[in-house]
Amino acid sequence: QLQLVESGGGLVQPGGSLRLSCAASGFTLDRYVIGWFRQAPGKERERVSCINSNTGVTYYADSAKGRFTISRDSAKNTVLLEMNNLKVEDTAVYYCAASKDLTRWMSGPIDYWGQGTQVTVSS
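User: That's the sequence. What structure does it adopt?
Assistant: Structure tokens below.
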């Protein structure tokens, strides 16, 4: 079965850090662009960051630049999102998403979605 499984969400205070993990099973990430979307209550789902698992090329939304870092662990077939200096406005459900190329990842359709993990930033 082809699936993405996220982990690492939770509750953190403003200024804190979290690391999200997205593990793929049933397929190899090396041939995909994989990254994260997020959706806050009452808002549309938005892109956060992605990485081309083959080339290492990355993309960051303006809201993530300078604070988030995406990386891949090919041996574990996993992608990580390190989030630092978290803000209240980062509160959302974070979804891992994979597509076969960057155009599809940015504009759709997404080939695989994870189930989502909650990130809450609150004092």
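The CA atoms of residues 91 and 120 lie 5 Å apart.
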